[in-house]
Amino acid sequence: MQIQPIKRGHGKNLEGDGLRRILADVFGEEHVGESSGKYEVFYGALNPLRTWLEGKGLAVETIMKKDVDEEVARDTIKKYNQFLDRATGYTAKERIKRARKGG
Question: What are the structural domains of the chain?
């Protein structure tokens, strides 16, 4: 599990049904479910992605299928990054930079 930081002021977009709406917009409503207060996505190589708000961050837990073709893997990574961009307010480049800096 990873805790992704959320850009200051961006957390209000995740409140209520916000996180679920972002997941549905990115992965498709039919791929999104909820279990024990956590959202689950079964899409492409994700088996599943689980996410929830944890303090001031976004908790993300993923289990990846290993036996998918390259096109499915690329599409899954693209959608996963789109989700993190929209949910955290940080681009992939900004997330990498923050991770290297230590937060």
Answer: 2-93 (3.30.310.190)
